[in-house]
Every structure is written in structure tokens, then in C-alpha cells.
# Entry
Amino acid sequence: MSLVVVGSAALDTVETPCEKRENLLGGSAVYFSVAASFFTSVHLAAVVGEDWPEEHTRLLKTRGIDTAGLQVVPGGKTFRWHGRYEPNLNDRETIDVHLNVLTQHDPVLPEHYRRCQFLFLANGATGLQLRMLEQCPGTVLTVADTMDLWIRTEPDQLAELLRRVDGLVLNDSEAKLLSGEQNVVRAGRRVRQMGPRFVIIKKGEHGAMFFGQHETYVLPAYPTADVVDPTGAGDAFAGGMMGYLAEQGQFDPLSLKQAIAYGTITASFTVEGFSLEGLLRATRDDLDARLEQYKRMVSF
Amino acid sequence: MSLVVVGSAALDTVETPCEKRENLLGGSAVYFSVAASFFTSVHLAAVVGEDWPEEHTRLLKTRGIDTAGLQVVPGGKTFRWHGRYEPNLNDRETIDVHLNVLTQHDPVLPEHYRRCQFLFLANGATGLQLRMLEQCPGTVLTVADTMDLWIRTEPDQLAELLRRVDGLVLNDSEAKLLSGEQNVVRAGRRVRQMGPRFVIIKKGEHGAMFFGQHETYVLPAYPTADVVDPTGAGDAFAGGMMGYLAEQGQFDPLSLKQAIAYGTITASFTVEGFSLEGLLRATRDDLDARLEQYKRMVSF
# Structure
């Protein structure tokens, strides 16, 4: 079934203890799309400036990603993020952010995007997420991501969003902030009571938790010895998950659990290289082989 | 098969955001024994002072725990620990420690302890752990725990211990310290190369990882909404694990995985009350029911 993602496209500068890389292809919608492209064709909506290298668009197209919704703002500059990771490669500091064209991003989705059945609203201003929802009235599954900034600054709009989406994906500290609960299980349940049918809490290197009406799932991260750059892992997790669901065309609890496992695996490939290098090296067969290995690691 | 644990018996003072409790029954060997007692009879070796309430010994005996190796030092005082938990109930600060009789603890194990087949050396001075090993020459499985203090102060003795035990259990920050690796997967593999056939890394609320020669397992913690007091969870984890293995009388990779799952479940009951309250409320049927629930949460 058709899958649309609305989010950011970015040029990142990433510093790890070993290396500094500049002008890397990044952004939530980009990581999501490439991860989802292992499973299904994705329609990407994002905005970039005139400095956006055409080769990035070409790369996305080679993955079967529809870039009709990738809007280039004349005279504009692409969103830039600069981060530095601690030696543990988990904690990071944001050195610099230039929103640039993101501040004016209020896309009108192409007509064929509006007929999508699966919609992912990557992290972004809540008002914009709501307007995207309105442009896609026929979805069967809508999932959103959010972050501390919007939880703090747009609580009313976020409350409305939570009543209107089917699922919410967010990280553990954000879930605690949103719910006011210190315990992550209570936080997940409380956020679910705010509207979505399910909540997925991402815990980075510690995996993910799923809270549905009757189901709770906990899945550890795939144990990766070679973490190069964790940027985009959360978006790739969501991309693998939604891509699998769109491929299957269903989202019952068991499909969701399998989808979270695929999300875990796509995230594990993502962190093994800078930018999209780790994901682009992998094939669907690599994903399936690692999924089987992972299954043996967690089942007993 | 017979299981011996050598470790501490303590009187704890625990402060959580909601409550302060004093003179609680605690100590690594005590938590371990009670957790293991769901599965098998345990022979406990520890030292206490004259202030040790006889009721604690009686309680241990009602669980089928052999206290022949519980040595009371005339005129001595029991080991005391005082800790305070942060609101997240994961991080804690040690307010006060009185080693008391622990400083003179160099037990001579009862004759029937020395014929044990399963031996757990709970966290303690490495020299003492080595002397306990020597007193039990016929074990089929010996597992040790250790901590940052001994890693820093007794590296040579610890290196010898690692060459002589079958398994090592330690937490993630300790594994990183011992190995010099920042990545937990690399840390686990590196520690295994120091001698033990397997290494289990405890990650608290994030679960545990197992590193064997050919196997890596990752198991999340059981998602507990009602954390009251996390003290002793790591020791109860080890107790559940070793108790199950001693009950089965085997420790092949698949039994170890099942044992880690049982350790996870005993730890989850432990944190649901102060001291041993959570564990003592549970029955073996409760453990088995939660294990089944847990299995459904992690399998896909």
C-alpha cells in the first residue's frame, strides 16, 4: 500500500570521536525513506534550498523513492544540523542548527500523495503535522513522531494531534516529559491514554517498547559492535517499521511486532556508517538474515 | 544439583523519593539465595554480627535455605549500607557504608558446602573469591560477580579469577571499565577473552546481554510499572539464573538463555517491594506466569 512521509531533508555535519564529516545527506524524511525503500515504494515530502545537490535526489530515485514532493525553494538554503557525539556514541551535543527553508515549509502535497493509505509524520512543527493530516483524509494508518521542543512549546496542538493519529513514536525522555511519569512503562501507557491506539518508545541502544490496548512488547536493540554514526537511527527505525507494514498492507498487533523487529534491524545497519552509508551497503537479504539472527538472540 | 553462594548479608537503609526504610534485610548472598530458592535448595555463606536479628535467619530457613555457612562474629556488627535513589529509581547515591564484620570475613566453608556442584561468588573482595574457589574443587559451574572497586584495586587477582571461573556477571559500566571498551558488545567480547566461557552484562532496567563462544543473547528487562526499590535486583537476577540452572542440572547455551529469562523475572519481582518483600510475595507459579507473559512480549 502507498506510504507517504513528511519530514526534513538536511545537510549534516557530524563529529564522532574518530572523524568529522561535513555536508552529509541527512534529515528525518530522508533516513525514513531509504529505510522504508527496502520494503515498498515511498513518497517523500520535504523542502530543500538551491544548495541541495541534485545527486541526492538522484540517489533517492534509484531507491524507488518518489521525490515529486521534494520542493526546492528558489534562493533558499537547505536545513543544516551540526552535532558532536561523546566517546560512548550515544550522547550527543548539537553544535549548530540552521533551520533555513524549514521555517517556510508548508507544503501542498502532490495529488497522488493525498490518496496515500500509510502516512508518517516525521518530527516537525506540530501545526504543520496537523495540516499534512488534513491533506490526506483517506489514510488507514497514520503515525507521528515528535520531540521535546514541540512538547514544551505546542502542547495544545500536540494534544489535538494525539487525538487524531493512530500511533506515536517518540524516545524515552520525550515520553517521560510528555506524560510527567518517570517510569517508562507508566509513561507509555499514559501517552496512549492521550489518544493514539499505540505508542512506541525508542530507547536508542536499549531497544524499543510498544504499548497497545492489550499488548505490551519489549524488544532490545540489535547488539552492534561497530557503531560509526548513530544519526538517523530513530528515523530509520520508523522507516523500516512503516515500510514493512505498508508492504504487508496490515497492522494488527502481530504485524506491528514484526514491523518493530524490522525497524530495529534497519536502525542497526544505519549506525554502522556515516549518513546513509550503512543502509545503502545492505540488501533486503542482509536485513532478513540479520532479522533471523536477532530472532534467535531474543527468543527462548 | 547443589548450589552454594558466598557473599554478603546486610542491614540496609534505603531512601526512595516516597519513603525511607531502615534496617532492611539485604546483602548480595541474601537476595541471591531467596531468588534461587524458587528453584532449588541453596547453601548460603556469609558473615554477620551479633546485631543480626535471628528472625532473618529463620526467614531464610523457611525458604529451604541452608544457613550452616552463616557465621555470626561474637561482638561484631553486621555490614550496613545506606543508599538514596533518584526520582527515576535507577540512579542512586551511596550515603554511607559500614563494612564492619565484612573486613574480617574469610570463611571456612562447611564440609558439605565444599562438595557443591554449582557455585556463585557474589560481589566481594577478589582474594576472598579465589579462596572460596579453592575450597570447592569439584564444581561443574562457577560464576562470579565483581564491581568497579575490585577492577580498580585488585586487577591481578581479578585476572586470575577470570581465568578460573566459567562465567562472569557484571553490569555495563563495570564491563566497560574492565575491558577499556566504550561499546557494550565489544566490552562483553573482550571480557570473555580474559578467561570465562561466558559473560553476562546486566543493564538494569534495560535488561541483560550474554556473550558465549558462539552465542550472543539480548534480553530486555520485564517492563515493570511499579518499581518500589531496585536494591538487590542484580543479585536476584543471578539467583534466579543460577537457581534454574542448578534445578535443571545443566548449562548448555539454551538452558543459559532460559536461565537468563528466569533471572529477569525474579529481578522484576524484587524491585516491586522494599528489601525482599516483592520476592517473598511471589510464588513459583507467579514466576512461571510472568515468564510466559514476558516470552510473548519479546518473541516475534
About this structure: The longest strand of chain B covers residues 20-26. Residues 25 and 56 of chain B are 7 Å apart (CA to CA). The two ends of chain B are 34 Å apart (CA to CA).
